[in-house]
Fold each of these.
Amino acid sequence: MRVIWNPGHAVHAPPLEVEEGAITPPFEVPSRFDAIRRSLDAAGRFTFEEPLPIAVEELFALHDADYVAYLREGASPIPSVFPYGPTERTCSPRTRRGTYCFDTYTPITAGTFEAALGGAAAALNAAEILASGTEHILYVLTRPPGHHAERARCGGYSYFNNAALAANRLAKLGPVAVLDLDVHHGNGTQHLFFDRYGVLTVSLHGDPMHLYPFFSGFADETGTGRGLGFNLNLPLPAASTPREYEPALAAALERIAKQGPAFLVVPFGADAHEADPIGGMKLPTEHFAEMGRAVRALGVPTLVVQEGGYNLDVLGPSVAAFLSAFHPISAH
Ligand code: SP5
Ligand code: ZN
């Protein structure tokens, strides 16, 4: 399997996050990338390629130019003020930062723009390869993640929505489905495609009553305008096991099959693993192989994009288990 990776990811190394007013060590760290790389190397049958760089303007397909320019300016602390409302004015630098962010987990460091741009490049390069029809499955190995990023707001460790950029590119060729398997709701992807007819967004995630991002991911969010009926949220209770995940994934795949997509994009996180420090779910490593087999059975050309997963011991094996299910059966 061809893996398109983000070679410059490590220049984004957040020093901290802020959780309910407390400074805590970051979960989203460069060693996550190395852990995945090591497991794929050990599993075999993966080849690694760097993406060609993209022009910044390619981000403007889904992200506002002023937001992109703000990230490019460089280091900026966790905001204290989050402007909103009918008269919000963001002329002060103190309010500007909060305009472009929706939580306190997502610092902008000196290297954030470059690392996030490299991830977008990896996703768009992979989409281009999938569009060319030579591959049935591709994997984008990158960090920081992307599925929480909205048009003009970072959050949830995400800055540019890599998977959404890929889906948007592929949507030029036909209907696209996004199947988000990270344990957290892909609020950014939902937000970007909520009114779109040609892109079906489906997400399995922890019930937002109890799990981040809390404000989005409920079952009654089904799309708007021409996109009505093209967003499906399948929230799962805390501590869900394969018993709960399996029927939810089956329902997700049934909805996708009904759409009949030309391409599938899978924002994939291993943070539903039983050993993940923040997901709260109960999936063993082997279940990620089960998920991979179920997704593969759709038979749709698929682009897997790395999102979360924060236990450094199980992240790599879980990714390898999921992806290895897509390998062609080889004769032994
Ligand atoms: C891409 C992705 O997985 N983003 C997730 C962002 C979650 N941020 C919230 C982290 C909250 C950590 N709370 C720790 C509580 C430990 N019991
Ligand atoms: Zn997550």
Note: The mean pLDDT is 97.
Amino acid sequence: MRIALLGAGGFIGSHLAEHLIRQGEHDVVGVDIDLEKLEGITGPRFEVLKLDIADPIVEDVVVSSDVVVDLVAHANPSLYVEKPIEVFELNFLRNLDMINLCVRHRKRIVQYSTCEVYGRPSASAFSEDSDLVLGPISKQRWIYACSKQLLERVIYAHGANGALEYTVIRPFNFIGTRFDYLVPPHTRGGPRVFAHFMSALLSGGPMYLVNGGLQHRSFTHIEDANAAFQLVLDHPGARNEIFNVGNPANDISVRGLAQLMQEVYEELTGKSPGCEVIEISGEEFYGEGYEDSDRVPPDVAKLTSLGWSPQRGLRDTLREVMAEYLALHRPATTAGRGVRAAS
Ligand code: UGA
């Protein structure tokens, strides 16, 4: 089988590429405009194309593939308030083009969506059929979840009409090596929380706790996520379904994550972290239009009933990823939005 990985150069895409190369069962073509994270990832059945998703050549890639895996997205909350139109255009319009290509050429699609489609908690755990509750229009943060939700609705409608074979994956905070870039001390906005806290530990701080750090996230090791993808790819029961992919056992508040990362840092380096923890409001940290998204843990019963279960605990996951960041660290001297953590 030939698999097209659109957005192969991102964090999830580069890990899926590595996974599929290791498996060695399929031909894989990775497409991305930024190939930095794919450096050193090679295999006899792996081809890389440096292309914008809007390039007409992408249609040839779709036509020549059996399965299209769509990972193309802006996924950093700071962008949702800084560049909401770009977020809509990429996360909805450009992705819609991919859906239309898959419909036209009768290709199966695996679409990476987001746990953020659930919005505000409406139950004690998010199951795939939970309500999707977003904040007001003036809180532009929600343009991302809304774009992703609308895309899922279009996919579902095509599937229900028999025009598209799909699987939608809703990731819950995957983490692993090659995650977001590091930033200089006192940076606001920018990458996601793990990279911010890691930057603070490496530079001496501070760690910012947005809105007191009371919000919860369920962090998922990227290898557990890869295993979920493999199951979805292979299992006939995953056709025309939506799945949460997350690790409910790794649920923690952001404040708890800050504490745990400090502990793990000390274990790994033998040094006391010595970074101050400062509370800050969401608007001060991200800008006007930000609203925090509290989350409840994922209900993963639907995917576990097909045979998947997440294996990796949070402390071990953090140890592994933080050790990699520590090994790669060079002092962050670049002003502004920081430097990439890993190639
Ligand atoms: C983002 C995307 O919006 C989701 O689609 C995606 O699924 C998710 O990342 C992911 O990594 O899977 P979010 O979890 O809100 O969602 O992203 P983060 O930027 O990592 O924020 C997590 C929490 O930490 C938020 O409550 C944020 O306010 C807080 N935070 C962030 C801090 O307290 N301090 C920081 O320095 C950075």
Note: The pocket of uridine-5'-diphosphate-glucuronic acid is lined by residues 75, 77, 114-116, 144, 171, 173-174, 192-193, 196, 208-210, 213, 215, 217, 254, 282, 292-293 (CB under 6 Å).
